[in-house]
Design goal:
Two copies of one chain form a homodimer. Chain A is of the alpha+beta class and 144 residues long. Chain A contains three helices and six strands. Chain A is globular, with a radius of gyration of 18 Å.
């Protein structure tokens, strides 16, 4: 009984740490994502998604599945988008998934081909697979 | 033993029906949402969200909490946005939440105040509360 109470107390004490760890874990994956993108490696970016993931970019149709998602990011790299930065703002676990709300910034060419800083926000549903968290649903938009 | 097998078989048979029911249930809520919006009732729209929900509109900052979300939709109604239509495309349950990918269309005034049809896509994380499903995270963008 006493051991069970101690175990329960430890679990309660550990809960905020687990939540903080999940956000840190997701932020670590965000950094892997932006590093791959900023190196121009669309294949490495696509591997961070689940096989049947959906990406919903503004101004373009839904990209379904890893191959379509790789093409989407290759298009952004070829189009001169760079210096992507991703910041997890709020991460919440739901079953075997995690919902992340985040902010991003990147340098993008405008209509006159000048490089401008673009800021926006996103929601990612991550799924835990045998080799870690993968993006399963990814949608974003711009702040302006 | 036989009863257990029959029960297991029934459960297997019921699984796709449950998934279809969830999508139909969410679509029913989508219709309540668009009806409230199209009547100009931002308070009724806001009540469909959880108390601490986040809405992430394109071209504007995150609206956190029901009051901010009501203000967001009141602004859209006052701005002349109308004839909202929402269609659930893919709904997946994760724990006590459901992830919906959907499509929307609505009539919106352009820079010259002409009404144009806008089409887009969205992701909603629904949470099940005592009185039904509520939008907890809501993000969208335009197709063009």
């Amino acid at each position: 009984m006493k051991a069970a109470l101690v175990a329960a107390a430890l679990l309660v004490a550990a809960a905020p740490a687990i939540a903080a760890d999940l956000k840190a874990e997701i932020q670590h994956d965000n950094e892997r994502f932006s590093q791959a993108f900023n190196k121009g490696d669309a294949a490495a970016v696509a591997k961070m998604y689940t096989e049947h993931a959906n990406a919903l970019p503004p101004g373009a149709p839904i990209a379904s599945g890893r191959a379509a998602i790789q093409k989407l990011w290759q298009g952004a790299i070829d189009g001169g988008y760079k210096n992507l930065s991703l910041t997890a703002v709020n991460v919440e676990r739901t079953g075997d998934a995690a919902r992340e709300i985040g902010r991003f910034s990147l340098d993008a060419p405008d209509a006159q081909k000048n490089i401008v800083k673009v800021e926006g926000k996103y929601v990612v549903i991550w799924k835990h697979e045998h080799d870690g968290w993968k993006l399963d649903t990814d949608i974003w938009n711009m702040n302006k």
